[in-house]
Amino acid sequence: MPIKGNYPRLMTDEPLKCYRARPLDRGRSRLPPKIATAAFALLCFSMSAARVCAQDQQTAASPPPVISTDRPAITDASTVVPSGYFVFENGFTETGTQGQSSFDFPETLARFGLTSTTELRLGVPDYFANSNTGRGFGSGWGDLNLGFKQQLLAGYAGFDASLVIALSLRIGANVISSHGYDPQFLLPWSHPISKNWTAAGMFSILWPTEDGRRNLTGQASFLIDRQITGPWDAFVEYGGEFPQRGGPEHIVHAGTSFKITPNQQLDFHVGFGLSAAAPDHFIGFGYSFQFRALHRSDGR
Questions:
Q1: In a domain, 300, yes or no
Q2: Can you give the pTM of this predicted structure?
Q3: Do 251 and 48 form a contact (C-beta atoms < 8 A)?
Q4: Is the peptide bond before 262 cis (omega within 30 degrees of 0)?
Q5: What domain range includes position 78?
Q6: Nearest to 217 by CA among 240, 244, 239, 238
Q7: Regarding predicted confidence, which is higher, 95 or 297?
Q8: Residue 181 — φ and ψ, nearest 5°?
Q9: Cα 242 to Cα 249: distance, rounded to the nearest angstrom
Q10: pLDDT tens-digit map of 209-259
Q11: CATH number assigned to the domain comprising residue 216
């Protein structure tokens, strides 16, 4: 059973993604051109994917695959999106840190199965809203994220594993953007323990830009997932972030997901910080869906 992943940032859009509010910059927001850039990137992503799907040479019909998402866990799915399919993951998270409450949405991650072993990924900018701007924290749109996932292992000795390579692009608001082009390397894996239990984890290396300097950061996560019924599963998870500069962040995280149909999923998750640098808590929910990009008109 593939494992899901994506959550507030022990960083975002990346394996851990939302909760660090940034000092308020009183400079003018560049929001309109940023959102236009993100929309253009999404359009190009969709058109490229549709072109590949139109060239699909499948010769036999097959039953539609059940949706498998990266969210809501920190640990990403260890498998890729099936060839020719789009998956759109969306959500909302509230984060509390030292009396400061913040929200981020829509947490949209668009994934397209380019081949049976490769997917393209587009992380749409989140909007971060901080409830107490008087304490020096601002609100605005985050950066864009582009990448791909490559399947490395598929059932080898019972293991699934993938490699995700991504790059964030500096299009966010002044108060939110890192103002850099930040690479990320993620290695999610999973292994079934029994029919209904699965162990999974992820190792990550990030180079976020903070205060104009690179801050080499390692991340690690480990989870146990329980399949409660066919469409319903739950997990408990540990997540850690270890930056070159700054204190480590340790998180305990739990959540559940329910597949309304084979193509739609609802999820809920909650987490708590175990170290001084981690957020006090975060809680979120999400909705994800998938569809086949194009269908062959071959008379069948």
A1: no
A2: 0.80
A3: no
A4: no
A5: 31-55+63-292
A6: 244
A7: 95
A8: -110, 105
A9: 7
A10: 998 999 999 999 999 999 999 999 999 999 999 999 999 999 999 999 999
A11: 2.40.160.40
